[in-house]
Design goal:
Length: 541
């Protein structure tokens, strides 16, 4: 196996024996093969000039397939194999449209058994592209597409689609099979991936807000009640909504974990009396927090950490693109309905959660809410009481070096505001950093996809201050990344024209030195240094 798609990749260069995430060799290879068959389908779509609107089953299975391969989403070898077989079936049926066209191996290969699947995966994994710069650019596009697919998948669950996004996914995956593309062509494709990343995040924002209302300032309880309860993690709000409906009046409470915290900010979700609060911190804390939670856990997406004991594994359920061997996967019916009764029945037999902290955290500062406070914010900037905004969105992770972000937040001058989204916030959202004239110093917009909100806010401020370049705003970007949704967020920000983004705790292992050089030269991308040096640098820019 070879995988270098996330920030925790072994030695910063690639996992070759087993993933640091816990992914084994078979799962890694099957994921590679799933991507390969997706490329083959894309080639057929592009070469046959198919009408993307007319192939909805393929569109939907395509985004599900990409999502399945995201870091920490699906460790279930059988589920991935089934998806490969399903995609090959769809591909073969669809290929009739392309009769007479010259197609590559990805569009025609067949598998006979598990061994042939693994062999095919080995031949077509990441390292099958020899040139390290071409490989780096192609993989960056693929990872961006994975993030884009995840956001598009959630929007689809709410009934919102943008056919153009599917069309671009096919275009980009088909291009990756084309060996005649130069590094310049692939740089252009990378930026175009960012353009479609903006569309995907806008689509999800529209889907979420049209269904659940605009996020509003909300104080979220981090303590517990005395009822048995279910913990829900991941990013899918439709799963949460269905779970809240099904647990109503059952005596079972629902708590959010990690990236599900921002669900509390939506009027149509926070109205549920059985949505009690948020339990614990970011994803990797699940190792201890699931023990003390005592009840069942539903993963609607990543990030899953392989459970340490059978007792914990038996309490984990998955849905959507997520999966873990030995855990019950809740399937949806043809109307998108999921029956969560096995989880509810288990919860009734479990002890209530053990309290691990008390108090509240405040969030809900997505674009609509912040723009409602725009006068106050603009006044504070003009009067000098706010000197700078720091976008610290992105992901959290296990590495000790991420303590940097807690220290950075603590040491920032008191006249600065942190704009955050994603699970990165758990490094500093319980620090009580105070407020500036009633504006909290940490403004949480939501999940990682809500980084879009931060871009909307910045674009609005640019307009209000009458600036010609968004980079003239008093905003600095110090982003923490971990998996591929952060890749699409980064590419989207670059497409929107934001420069000098600092990325940490380490630069991606998938960037070859030459590709990293292009990002530095064209966009001012940089890593992180010491907290003091970085604060000085940012404050004096
Ligand atoms: Fe955090 Fe994991 Fe949000 Fe990522 S919970 S790193 O999935 O997409 O961010
Ligand atoms: Fe390694 Fe990350 Fe790939 Fe897992 S997802 S195998 S940790 S690079």
């Amino acid at each position: 196996m070879f995988c270098y798609q996330c920030q925790e990749t072994a030695k910063g260069t690639g996992c070759e024996v087993r993933g640091v995430c816990g992914k084994n060799e078979e799962v890694a290879k099957f994921q590679d093969l799933l991507i390969y068959v997706c490329k083959g389908i894309s080639e057929i779509v592009i070469k046959s000039k198919a009408d993307v609107k007319s192939i909805s089953e393929i569109n939907h299975q395509m985004i599900k397939s990409l999502f399945i391969t995201i870091t920490n989403a699906n460790f279930d070898e059988n589920a991935i194999k089934d998806q490969i077989i399903k995609m090959i079936g769809l591909r073969n049926e669809f290929r009739e449209q392309a009769a007479g066209l010259k197609l590559s191996d990805a569009a025609v290969f067949e598998i006979t058994d598990e061994v042939s699947m693994l062999d095919k995966a080995t031949e077509n994994g990441v390292l099958s592209t020899d040139n390290e710069d071409i490989r780096s650019l192609k993989e960056m596009v693929t990872y961006g597409l994975k993030g884009m697919a995840a956001y598009t998948y959630h929007a689809l669950n709410i009934g919102k689609e943008n056919i153009e996004i599917y069309g671009f996914i096919y275009e980009a995956l088909a291009a990756e099979l084309d060996d005649s593309l130069s590094a310049d062509d692939l740089v252009a494709l990378t930026l175009k991936t960012g353009e479609f990343g903006v569309k995907a995040m806008a689509l999800l924002d529209e889907a979420n807000t049209s269904r659940y209302g605009n996020p509003e300032i909300t104080s979220v309880n981090i303590g517990v009640r005395s009822n048995p309860a279910i913990l829900i993690s991941g990013h899918d709000l439709t799963d949460l909504e269905q779970l809240l409906e099904q647990t109503k009046d059952t005596g079972v409470d629902v708590y959010t974990h990690s990236e599900m915290l921002p669900a509390h900010y939506y009027p149509e979700l926070k109205k549920y009396e059985n949505l009690v609060g948020n339990y614990g911190g970011s994803w990797w804390n699940q190792i201890t927090e699931f023990e003390t939670f005592n009840g069942p856990v539903l993963f609607t997406t990543n990030c899953i950490v392989p459970p340490k004991s059978e007792e914990i594994r038996a309490r984990i359920f998955t849905s959507g693109a997520a999966g873990y061997p030995g855990c019950i996967h809740i399937e949806e019916d043809e109307n998108g309905k999921k029956d969560f009764s096995p989880i509810i029945e288990m919860a009734k037999k479990c002890k209530p959660p053990t309290e691990i902290e008390t108090g509240n955290i405040v969030g809900g500062f997505a674009h609509n809410q912040v723009l409602a406070l725009a006068d106050k914010v603009v006044e504070a900037v003009k009067s000098g009481s706010i000197k700078k905004f720091f976008v610290m969105a992105g992901c959290d992770g296990r590495m000790k070096s991420r303590e940097y972000y807690t220290e950075f937040a603590e040491k920032l001058p008191k006249d600065t505001i942190i704009l955050t989204a994603g699970c990165a916030k758990f490094r500093y959202n319980k620090l009580n950093l105070g407020d500036i004239g009633g504006i909290p110093r940490v403004l949480d917009a939501g999940q990682c996809n809500d980084s879009y909100s931060l871009a909307v806010i910045a674009m609005k401020l640019k307009e209000v201050f009458g600036l010609s370049d968004i980079n003239e705003l008093p905003i600095a970007f110090n982003i923490a990344w971990y998996e591929q949704k952060a890749v699409i967020v980064l590419l989207a920000l670059l497409y929107l024209g934001f420069k000098n983004i600092h990325l940490g705790p380490t630069l991606p292992g998938f960037l070859s030195p030459a590709v990293a050089g292009v990002l530095v030269e064209k966009f001012g991308i940089a890593g992180i240094g010491s907290v003091e040096d970085d604060i000085n640098l940012f404050m004096n820019k």
